[in-house]
């Protein structure tokens, strides 16, 4: 996390997610012919970034399942049911890091425990450090983008429908997409 190709150097400290400038999203193949993208509108998270030894960095994120948004209210309502995310019985999705591996100056592998519907599994997210800057309010800000792929069945999300043409309605593989802006908490 240095200044190579970025606006500045990250300072060691605690950072909080800025939901107004971050996106936690997903993409799934629908009816075997197209992709549907969605995200969550309510989430928070904190992390400790260690500028000298990024492997000692940590993060925790909590997502409100009921905030799922695919720009289609009928689909969103179905995603909130037990067929998919079961927002009533499992209102939160959580992630907590267990390891951070530095690939190069801007690429990191962040491994952690993802919990969906009460089932916890390890995942690894490929993150790219997009830079750091002091914004117009004087806040120190960092940006990361990342992706991972999970099998939704591993988390108890197994609903599907067989299509007349032989495929299924929803892919098992779900792409996760992260666009993160975090603000350093003053000392």
Automatic annotation (TrEMBL):
Classification via InterPro entries: Lipid/polyisoprenoid-bd_YceI (IPR007372), TTHA0802/YceI-like_sf (IPR036761)
Signal peptide coordinates: none
Boundaries of every Lipid/polyisoprenoid-binding YceI-like domain copy: 14-183
Domain of life from the UniProt record: Bacteria
Listed Pfam families: YceI (PF04264)
Similarity field: Belongs to the UPF0312 family.
Protein name stated in the entry: YceI family protein
Source lineage: Bacteria, Bacillati, Actinomycetota, Actinomycetes, Micromonosporales
């Amino acid at each position: 996390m240095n200044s190579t190709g970025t606006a500045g150097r990250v300072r060691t400290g605690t950072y909080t997610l800025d939901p107004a400038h971050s996106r936690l999203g997903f993409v799934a193949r629908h009816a075997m012919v197209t992709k549907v993208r969605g995200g969550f509108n309510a989430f928070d998270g904190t992390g400790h970034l260690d500028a000298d030894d990024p492997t000692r960095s940590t993060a925790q994120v909590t997502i409100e399942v009921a905030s799922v948004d695919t720009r289609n209210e009928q689909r969103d309502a179905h995603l909130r049911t037990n067929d998919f995310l079961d927002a009533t019985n499992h209102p939160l999705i959580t992630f907590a890091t267990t390891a951070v591996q530095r690939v190069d100056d801007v690429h990191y592998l962040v491994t952690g425990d993802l919990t969906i519907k009460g089932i916890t599994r390890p995942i690894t997210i490929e993150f790219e450090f997009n830079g750091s800057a002091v914004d117009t309010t004087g806040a120190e800000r960092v940006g990361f983008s990342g992706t991972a792929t999970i099998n939704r069945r591993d988390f108890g999300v197994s609903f599907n429908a067989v299509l007349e043409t032989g495929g299924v309605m929803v892919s098992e593989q779900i792409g996760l997409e992260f666009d993160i802006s975090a603000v350093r908490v003053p000392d």
